[in-house]
Here is the input.
Amino acid sequence: MFGLLKEKLSKVVRKISENIEKKKPVEREVEIEKEVKKAVKKGIVKKVLEKVTKKVLEKKISDKDLEGVLSDLEISLLEADVAFEVSEKIKNDLKGHLVGKEVKRGKVKEIVVKTFKDSLLEILKVPSINLDEIIKKKSPSLLIFLGFNGSGKTTSLAKVGNYLKNKGFSCVFAAGDSWRSAAIEQLEEHGRKLGVNVIKHTYGADSAAIIFDAKKHAESKGIDVVLADTAGRTHVNKNLMDELNKVVRVNKPDLKILIIDSLVGNDAVPQAKMFDESIGVDAVMFTKIDVNEKGGCILSVAHTLKKPILFLGVGQKYSDIKTFKAEEFIENII
Here is the structure.
C-alpha cells in the first residue's frame, strides 16, 4: 500500500542524510588540530576543546546542501499524485527545520523523518467523525453516498452496510441510482448477500422520492440506518449536481459521504472541490487503495477539503474496509 510514495520519500530521506553527513574537508581537520595545539600553549584547553567538539559534531545546513534534494523531492511528490501546493508545504517545512540549523552528525535522518511526519500529520489534521455516535443520536440516520462515475459508490455503500451490521446496527438500502443500467439489480444483489432490504422504484424515478420512501420505511420498522445510493455524475455537470442538491434538500441527510477512486490521481482534487462547493461534503472514503501504489491523492484531498476521511476500501470483499487513521497512514509512508 502506498509503495511508490513510500519508496520515493525514503530515497529523499537517504539523499538528504548523505548530503549533510559527507566527510569533513581535510583542511577543516587541519585547522581544528592547529586550534587545539594553540589552546594547549595558552592553557585554555577545556574551552577550546568544547568549541572544537561542537564544530566536529555539528554543522550548519545551508540552502546549497538541500538545493538538489528538494527539487527531487518535489518531482517525487508530484509523481505520487501529491498536489503542487501540498508538495510545496512539505518542502518548505523541511527547509524551515533544517536550513541554518546546527544538526548533530548522525541525527540528520531522525530530524528529516520527524519533519516529514509532522508535516504530513498537519496536512491530515482534519476534524474527526464518530459514525457510531451519529447513528445512536438519531434513528433512522441517513447516509448518502456521492461521487464520480465509476468511483465505487454502490460497493462502498455495501461495505459500510456490512461494517454497521457487524456493529449491531440495523440497515436498509435505498436504490437512489435509478439511471445507470443494472444499478438497482447490483444493489439488490448486495442486499441479498448481506441480508439487507432494498427500497427501490422503477428506472427513471425521482432519486429524492426513492430515498424519502426509504427513510419512511426505516422509521416505521425501527431501522437504525438508511444507506442511500445515488447516480454517478461528473463534477462539472451542473444539471446533475442540481439534481443531487434536490436529493439533499428534500431528505436532509445526516452524513454526505464522497467516494473517491484513489486511482484518479490529481483529478481527485477538482472532484472533491466541486462536490463540496455544490453539495457540501461531510466525509470522504477512498476506494481501490489495495491497487494504488501512490497514495498521494489522500494527502491532496485532506489538504483541500479539511474534512474527515472515514474509510479506505482495501479489497473486493465486504470486510475489506479500514477505518482511516492518520498516524498509521504516515507510518506506512515513512
